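Researcher: Next sequence.
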Amino acid sequence: MGMWVGRGRKARAAYGFDDIALVPGAVTVNPNEVDIHWELCGRRFDLPIIAAAMDGVVSPKLAIEMGRHGGLAVLNLEGVFARYDNPDDVLQRIVSASQEEATKIIQSIYGEPIKEELIHRRIGDIKKGGGPAVVSSIPQRAERFAQIAQEAGADIFVVQSTVTTARHIATEYTPVDLRKLKKQLAIPLIVGNVVTYEACLELMECGVDALLIGVGPGAACTSREVLGLGVPQVTATADSAAARDFHYKQTGRYVPIITDGGMTTGGYHWGMATPHLNLPRGTRIRVGIAGPLEQILFGPAFTEDGTLNLVGAIRTCMGSVGAQSIRELQQTELIIAPAIKTEGKVFQQAQKLGRPR
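Model: Next structure:
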């Protein structure tokens, strides 16, 4: 499998969201009657979108709002909300800085120590607001922060880094034992990021409850440019789903995989239409840029670029391919169609319509 890229060296073709399109179904469904819910460890979530663990995206307030709408938002336990009593002032310093100043300011801001009492406070605030408390850390701090988060009442813990594997070799520090961590937790454990069949299988064998799929496709991620790492999202998601299906056949345990990044508009349903349960994680949730959260999720849309009314777009897409549930959407026929967004779009291109701003 693959194509020759030089003497003795082959490379496999891989596909991203812009390379793929969904084929309309022979049967269509009223978009208002499709079911977009998903489940994690027996808990139902009505919104198949997760807001990313980024300080500029998720605050306790946004986590509460996402929960109110039936979705999830991941709070970064190593960000400003766990370091400062008044994180809004800190974020404003970054926002108001020039591009030249921003990097130095960010470096100084994240030099402030993480405070355990603030972790308890932020999780408590989310719980008081009625939202599910989903929090994250990097693998090196996962054992300590997972216990703190669980004691504070967190509902889900996320371990996330650029590339996370079940086997990590290091002599400068002790790598996290994900199998041991899972046994110590009474709450669901989500781990990422990962993009290959083999790595997914090994993580599932550790007992993790869900996986984050994607290296480098996030709206603010520089892994591909700086490190040269990554696999286009459609291929990464399909490979990961194949690993999950094999694991399910072997064990009877179904592990949701979460397509993490690469989606910028409501038209990117490829992440949910590759095999089985793959949920888009919200690099698209940019409150204050595109509009208020409720408008981003449910409209009404005042732009034509697909960055608003994401749920309406998901429902309409599902209706058009004849899918009554997310599981049925994963069975939709896919085609390789790199010209799908530009074919015949003369007036759209001339008027610069349908492009994210």
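Model: Confidence is low (pLDDT under 50) at residues 267-290. The domain at 39-304 is CATH 3.20.20.70 (TIM Barrel).
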